[in-house]
Amino acid sequence: MEIVTLENDHLKILIAPRYGAKIIEMWDKKANYQWLWVDGSREIRDRKFGDAFDAHDISGFDDCFPNIGVSSYPLDEDKALPDHGDLWTQPCSWTATEEACVTTIKGKSFNYTFKRSLRLIKNSVKFEYEIVNKGQLDFYAFWSAHPLLKAFDGMKIEIHGNPKMTKEFGFSQRLGADGEDGYEGHLDPYVWPYSTSANGSSHDLSLIDTSKAITDKVVLRSPMDGVVKLLNPHIGCSLKFEFNPLDVPFVGICYNLNAWPFVGEKGCWLAIEPTQGATDRLDEAMQMGAALKFMMNKKVNFELCLTLEQI
């Protein structure tokens, strides 16, 4: 497997260009710690457009575009949007130096190019994104980061303020009743960090507890300062996400603590997902007025920065 390695005194990043420019490892060299969860039961292998995400290795850090959840496109109901979007199944063209890598993927669901410039700057990884609509029609879409970070007891998610949030799905009983498919109460409102279970008990979603197998997801309004931190007391370090909340107005937080996938090794990870969509499905996001319009021959640019800090 072709691997691009970026490295400086603080960080080491491994990227697989053939598989949607997936970041497969992200090392804090000072702490000798690898932040990303690794799927121990599925090898990275060739995939094709439209494949089910959980039929493959799901670990590492992917980018999702133009959607996350499967749905049809409301402006063309014959167009099916694939599981976790186009990018993860597509090879990219790339150029790299010792501390930077630029990858470009051509869209499948729509006619666009998705360019990501990744650069190491001391103890930070700066992501610069550029999406260009190359087609003859405008289209709606959204981007989401999709990093699966190893989860341990005692970890904490730190977000300033108490942004509004909604339930995406739940197999945990922490977000009201789950229902048979986990989507009972889908889009029900809460306020970070507390949720209410079906029996009325309160749960602090900022604290990671792996004693029970759960998987659920919430979507928050981005905090005003555009900062989300994951604190790991086991290594005395944190991973800080920084972005402009005007460009990236939502943050998905997905918890999977020894519960999913249902086939193969169950993962124990936490996904912090800065995103432009208020829910996983593009059709729902459009109905909510929470998806971006990509104009013909126009560029959309935005940034994300990940920084390693001591706590």
Describe the structure.
The chain is mainly β. The protein has a single domain, classed as Beta-galactosidase, Chain A, domain 5 (Distorted Sandwich), CATH 2.70.98. It is 2% helix and 46% strand. The strands form 6 sheets. It has an 8-stranded antiparallel sheet with strand order 8-9-10-11-25-21-20-14, with no helix packed on it. A 7-stranded antiparallel sheet has the order 5-13-23-22-19-15-16, with no helix packed on it. The chain has a 4-stranded antiparallel sheet with strand order 1-2-3-4, with no helix packed on it. Strand 17 and strand 18 form a beta hairpin. The protein starts with a strand and ends with a strand.
Rg (CA only): 18 Å
Mean pLDDT: 96
Give the neighbour order of strands across the main sheet.
Answer: 8-9-10-11-25-21-20-14
Structural class: mainly beta
What would the CATH topology be? Beta-galactosidase, Chain A, domain 5
Which descriptor suits the 3D outline? globular
Domain count: 1
Flag low-confidence runs.
none
Taking the sheet with the most strands, its summary is: 8 strands, antiparallel
Order of helices and strands: EEEEEEEEEEEEEEEEEEEEEEEHEE
Number of helices: 1
Strand content: over 45%
Helix content: under 10%
Straight-line distance between termini: 36 Å
Q: Can you tell me the CATH architecture?
A: Distorted Sandwich
CATH class: Mainly Beta
Number of strands: 25
